[in-house]
Design goal:
The complex is a heterodimer of chains A (591) and B (198).
Chain A lengths: L3 E5 H11 L4 E4 L7 H6 L7 E4 L3 H13 L4 E6 H17 L5 E7 L13 H6 L3 E3 L4 H18 L3 E6 H4 L1 E6 L18 H4 L3 H24 L4 E3 L2 E9 L2 H8 L3 E6 L1 E3 L3 H10 L3 E4 L5 H8 L18 H11 L28 H10 L3 E3 L24 H11 L6 E6 H17 L5 E6 L28 H8 L3 E6 L3 H13 L4 E6 L14 E3 L18 E6 L6 E5 L9 H5 L5 E3 L2
Parallel strand pairs in A: 2-3, 2-4, 4-5, 5-7, 6-7, 10-11, 10-13, 14-15, 15-16, 16-18, 17-18
Antiparallel strand pairs in A: 1-8, 6-12, 9-11, 19-22, 20-21
Chain B lengths: L5 E8 L4 H14 L3 E6 L9 E9 L12 E6 L2 H6 L4 E10 L6 H4 L9 H8 L4 E3 L1 H8 L5 H10 L6 H11 L2 H22 L1
Parallel strand pairs in B: 1-4, 4-5, 5-6
Antiparallel strand pairs in B: 1-3, 2-3
The chains are: A alpha/beta (591), B alpha/beta (198).
Chain lengths: 591, 198
């Protein structure tokens, strides 16, 4: 009997967690993993779920639940795993009590990330178990299996997704008996030899982890998730994850060793497969994770000039590989028509409260270290008001480091509210403690914006929809000991300029909270409409510098060199910034 | 490449309702008992950027990505985007274009030049495209936000699926209080598509 539903792999994780009886789930949002916890929240009657303050905290929450004997889930994007590694590296010695499943969603091709990382390297580094599903059905099956494996082998079990699996919907048979599972909880027994890995206890655990890897390797050789699909043996392809789909599309006739459980690698199975085919080809997305291990077994692997180890895999790249290796295909004939087309990049929304801050910082000629969020868009023309972006929370340490290196001029860090809570708080404490003088500007719009409006400690609501205490960023800074803490309305351009000039020029460290709710999250996108009086408009171009998508070029001046402005009434969100900027009173509210 | 798989690429601008439309197409294919994969790119694209979603259906579908030059159907929600994604279309592919222009901020702000010969270029690239003024039709139906369902209606005439299956998929996906409005828009789009086919 079956019940078929169309699910993305992110959704399938949540369905599987429900069925497997997961009791606690915590995550910090990050594309492409965000929808996992949003979907888990739909099963909140059986799964306690939350937005953690950052990935490390979420990992620690999940570990705590696992220690207590419950099944626990945490999920993150690849760079989030970097943040969460510290607790993981020790819990892998301790070993899971209740099943601990970690979902990491890589972003090959960097659709919405600052780098591409192959998380499989970190899973191997952590001596954890690793599943690599190829579609939503496998994700549904493997997440359930991962809970079992985690408990059976006392190991953190990873499920590695990628943007393409996370955001592809496929048909999943969830079974006609789908519903929340209630597995028997593991007992928590106080045991300091296990849960307190001081050196004398950690050393034997290190040995246990080694023995566990051997046991898991044996499991890898037996699990049906690793299987041979026999075909023409003149070529044998070893592949894993979503890449399997492209292999089946482009090399349909050849034998395939399809690996769904890839750490530890099933060495004997790989050797046997290699021995059964004429030539071995390894095809995987991002790093040569499997290929290096296969080569280390002394197996000869087909060499090729076609580059496969960076960016997202796709059928056309494999067709290029097939052309090189077999010479029996041609690349698709493609007609392009995009020559000379204007680009359509993402922009800060009309009415966004971040816009005034960047406009003002550009005017003040400040050097601005940025951070991760919608506001990274402040780096682009016409705002051009950001110099660096490294990772979550880095803005503060980066600006401070520049100061200590002797960078002169106005210097500040810009960070969003959610990123401030995530990892900006420690950075500003460091500035204060060590005598820095930089200004940290918190763009406080009371939501985690870029990932699609998730709640955070400043929004007053939890993932479960319950009310929560609203954390006041200014009070945090004051409690740390900052003397200069200023809150300013991001929509008051004159006040904002006055405050920013004063604080950036002050010889003491300061924190400015530039507040204003996200227009989309607060449903303020229709707060009014403005229009330009073409008679009064002098085509000075001041309002264009805001980079607002609602402000368009209107009629040209007689010499054709400048343009009057015009406001698109559909896009205008009524924020008033352009009205405040216009020296000629040409911009008026019409509603 | 696998035979008998139908490839549909839906392109346009963030906020136009592309993801809902592709989701309903994918559900319709699944209701028809076919294997289906629907793949989309989120994230940075949400802030008014160029957006793409791909739907593949057939007896068995492997790759979620449609290779360049292999889309049997290209559905462009905006005219400039129709040109931008030309390379996706198969030689014998069909094209549905929403007769609508959305000026990119790069042009409205004067950073980049506007395309002045858009009509000519579209005519040259897509001599037999089906054009639907979905926004006007949606306005007539009472709500501009149903523009995507007008396009879904027109698209439905280019797929092998019955109107009933499409409507069933819409009921699965659209909240009860909005469903009648959306079904009406779908019907209007379907009539527009059928009129053009005959």
């Amino acid at each position: 009997m079956s019940r078929k539903v169309l699910l993305s792999a992110n959704e399938a994780v949540a369905w599987a967690a429900c069925k497997a009886g997961c009791a606690v789930a915590s995550a910090y949002p990050g594309t492409p993993s965000t929808e996992i916890l949003e979907q888990v929240a739909k099963f909140k009657d059986s799964i306690y779920c939350e937005w953690g303050v950052n990935e490390k905290v979420s990992m620690e929450v999940a570990i705590g639940a696992s220690i207590a004997g419950a099944r626990a889930l945490t999920a993150m994007k690849h760079v989030g795993l970097n943040v969460a590694m510290d607790p993981l590296m020790t819990y892998t010695y301790v070993g899971a009590n209740g099943g601990l499943v970690v979902v990491t969603a890589d972003d090959p091709g960097m659709h919405s990330s600052q780098n591409e990382q192959d998380s499989r390297n970190l899973v191997k580094f952590a001596r954890a178990a690793l599943f690599e599903p190829a579609d939503s059905q496998e994700t549904f099956d493997m997440v359930q299996a991962a809970f079992e494996v985690s408990e059976q082998f006392q190991v953190p079990a990873f499920v590695r997704l990628s943007t393409r699996t996370s955001h592809t919907s496929t048909v999943v048979d969830v079974g006609d008996d789908f519903g929340p599972g209630y597995p028997e909880r593991k007992e928590y027994v106080k045991d300091i030899r296990r849960y307190i890995p001081v050196p004398m206890f950690a050393r034997p655990q290190r040995l246990k982890a080694q023995e566990r890897t051997a046991a898991l390797r044996a499991f890898a050789g037996e699990t049906p998730f690793n299987r041979v699909e026999r075909g023409d043996d003149r070529l044998g392809i070893i592949t894993s994850g979503v890449t399997y789909q492209y292999v089946k599309e482009v090399f349909p006739e050849f034998s395939v060793l399809k690996l769904g459980f890839t750490n530890p690698l099933p060495i004997e199975q790989v050797k046997a497969f290699a021995a059964s085919v004429e030539r071995v080809l390894v095809i995987e997305e991002l790093d040569p994770f499997l290929e290096d291990q296969v080569r280390a077994l002394g197996i000869k692997v087909v060499e090729h000039a076609t580059e496969l180890n960076m960016h997202e895999m796709n059928p056309v790249r494999l067709t290029a590989l097939r052309k090189e290796l077999l010479g029996d295909v041609e690349l698709p004939v493609v007609t392009r028509a995009d020559a000379g087309l204007p680009t359509r990049p993402p922009v800060l929304c009309a009415g966004c409260g971040h816009r005034s801050v960047f406009y003002t910082l550009a005017k003040l000629g400040a050097t601005v270290t940025g951070d991760i969020g919608c506001y990274t868009l402040g780096a682009f023309p016409p705002l051009n008001a950001m110099d660096t972006t490294i990772c979550m929370g880095a803005s503060v340490g980066n600006a401070y480091g520049m100061e200590k290196a002797g960078k002169s001029g106005r210097l500040c860090a810009v960070i969003g509210d959610s990123t401030f809570f995530h990892s900006g708080m420690t950075g500003i404490l460091n500035v204060l403690y060590n005598g820095g003088t930089i200004t940290t500007i918190v763009l406080d719009n009371r939501i985690t914006g870029m990932t699609g409006h998730q709640d955070n400690p400043g929004s007053g609501r939890t993932l479960r929809g319950d009310p929560a205490p609203v954390t006041d960023i200014a009070e945090i800074a004051k409690a740390m000991g900052f003397k200069r803490v200023v809150s300013v309305d991001a929509y008051d351009m004159a006040a904002l300029e006055r405050v920013l000039k004063e604080e950036l020029d002050a010889p003491e460290p300061s924190v400015v909270i530039a507040g204003g709710p996200c227009r989309i999250a607060a449903k303020l996108t229709n707060a009014g409409t403005f229009e330009v009086d073409a008679e009064k408009c002098k085509a000075c171009g001041a309002c264009f510098k805001l980079g607002c998508p609602a402000i368009e070029r209107g009629e040209p001046t007689p010499d054709g060199k400048r343009f009057k402005s015009r406001i698109d009434p559909v896009q205008c969100a009524g924020c008033t910034m352009c009205e405040q900027l216009c020296k000629f009173g040409a911009i008026k509210r019409v509603r | 490449m696998s035979e008998k798989v139908t490839n549909v690429s839906l392109v346009g601008v963030g906020g136009q309702g592309i993801l809902l439309t592709s989701d309903i197409l994918a559900r319709t294919a699944a209701l028809a008992g076919l294997d289906v994969k629907k793949s989309e790119i989120h994230g940075m694209a949400q802030r008014g950027g160029s957006v793409i979603s791909q739907v593949r259906f057939g007896e068995k579908v492997y790759s979620p990505i449609i290779p360049d030059g292999a889309s049997n159907l290209l559905v462009a929600f905006e005219r400039l985007e129709a040109l931008r994604w030309r390379h996706l279309l198969a030689a014998d592919g069909k094209v549905l274009i929403n007769d609508m222009n959305m000026t990119p901020v790069t042009v409205s702000s004067g950073q980049q030049a506007a395309v002045t010969d858009l009509d000519d270029r579209l005519r040259t690239e897509y001599p037999s495209a089906l054009y639907v003024d979905a926004l006007t039709i949606a306005k007539e139906m009472g709500n501009t936000r149903t523009m995507n369902m007008v396009l879904a209606g027109a698209l439905s005439t280019l797929t092998p699926f019955s109107a009933e299956l499409w409507q069933q998929a819409m009921r699965e996906r659209i909240a009860a209080k909005f469903i009648d409005l959306n079904l009406k828009a779908f019907e209007a789009g379907r009539a527009r598509g059928a009129a053009s086919a005959s």
